[in-house]
Recover the amino acids of this structure.
């Protein structure tokens, strides 16, 4: 418990630095991701798809408040260990869920991680704080990466031709959920749909030979991303070439995601890698990924992004060429990058010293 208390104090200190920067009295945090970040992994949501939870945090220079309703308070107190973190609880009746919040912030000058009343929206700055992970968070992230990789391997091992995309999504969801991880993104494409869509919501289409499974798994508020491919029967040469080309781009991005690099530099490096593989325009069809943490992407690699890679951050790059995609989550440490979603039971090739997953051939 002391470890989490130390982690909480680090985060409260960083938030209070933001107070001084903006010369305000408090910070209101309403996003599910921000709540999980500050509380070291607690869940403020009941609807897993919501952005803003049923509990919020308000931090001043001298106090840290937890605001929620009488429905959520017992769970947060009894199961998430938040009483021991020293939050001052302000609980409203569910019929007036913002009663205590409105009373607390009345007359105060404050900032927020969402658009809320007259508060200045500092969501981008909060996102940067969330993406700078403590040692404790990186330990949890490694555990999450292993769970997501295991879930993916298990799901791929159970696939059979004739399964619908719905069935495959259910299988991946089952393997993920039973490991205590939420599949907040669960995208499936089979055969020609792999070539047609970068974000393939599952359908009733049945698997013949080729499938792509995409997972973003959430646990302790952290989100880990992984994509894998499977082919029944020999992989056609042209498809194999696409997968290898995509793996080259992924390895290039991973190798260059080092402290001091800006995200626009990495975007340019990615563009060059596409061109070297003879597909200079494929990057235009999908974002390339970026920093991760308590959102599937805290910030993207974009041409104008001046965000700089720091040791202690996590990144998920997801280059794609029509019909192929490679995606893993990495931790950036001072001396190396660590891929936390390795699936050693599946085919891997080493490019520029980086292990890259290829399609599983069944």
């Amino acid at each position: 418990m002391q470890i989490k208390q130390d982690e909480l104090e680090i985060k409260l200190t960083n938030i209070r630095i933001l107070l001084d920067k903006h010369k305000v009295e408090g910070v209101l945090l309403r996003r599910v991701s921000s709540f999980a970040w500050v509380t070291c992994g607690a869940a403020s949501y009941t609807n897993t798809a919501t952005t803003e939870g049923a509990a919020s945090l308000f931090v001043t220079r001298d106090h840290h408040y937890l605001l929620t309703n009488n429905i959520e308070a017992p769970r947060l107190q009894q199961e998430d260990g938040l009483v021991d973190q020293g939050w001052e609880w302000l609980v409203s009746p569910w019929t007036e869920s913002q009663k205590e919040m409105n009373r607390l912030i009345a007359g105060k000058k404050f900032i927020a991680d969402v658009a809320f009343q007259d508060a200045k929206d500092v969501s981008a700055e909060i996102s940067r704080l969330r993406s700078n992970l403590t040692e404790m968070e990186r330990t949890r992230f490694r555990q999450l990466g292993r769970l997501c990789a295991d879930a993916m391997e298990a799901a791929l091992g159970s696939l059979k031709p004739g399964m619908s995309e719905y069935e495959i999504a259910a299988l991946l969801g089952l393997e993920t959920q039973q490991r205590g991880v939420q599949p907040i993104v669960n995208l499936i494409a089979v055969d020609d749909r792999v070539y047609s869509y970068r974000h393939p919501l599952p359908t009733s289409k049945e698997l013949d030979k080729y499938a792509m499974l995409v997972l973003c798994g959430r646990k302790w508020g952290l989100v880990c991303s992984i994509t894998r491919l499977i082919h029944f029967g020999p992989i056609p040469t042209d498809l194999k070439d696409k997968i290898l080309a995509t793996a080259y781009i992924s390895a290039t991005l991973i190798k260059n995601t080092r402290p001091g690099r800006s995200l626009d530099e990495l975007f340019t490096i990615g563009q060059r890698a596409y061109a070297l593989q003879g597909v200079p325009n494929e990057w235009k069809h999908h974002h390339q990924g970026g920093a991760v943490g308590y959102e599937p992407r805290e910030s993207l690699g974009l041409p104008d992004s001046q965000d700089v890679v720091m040791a202690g951050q996590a990144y998920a790059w997801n280059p794609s060429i029509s019909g192929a995609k490679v995606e893993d989550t990495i931790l950036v440490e001072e001396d190396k990058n660590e891929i936390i979603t390795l699936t050693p039971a599946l085919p891997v090739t080493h490019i520029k010293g980086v292990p890259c997953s290829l399609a599983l051939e069944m």
In short: The chain has two domains: 2-131, 135-361. The radius of gyration is 22 Å. Residues 291 and 315 are 4 Å apart (CA to CA).
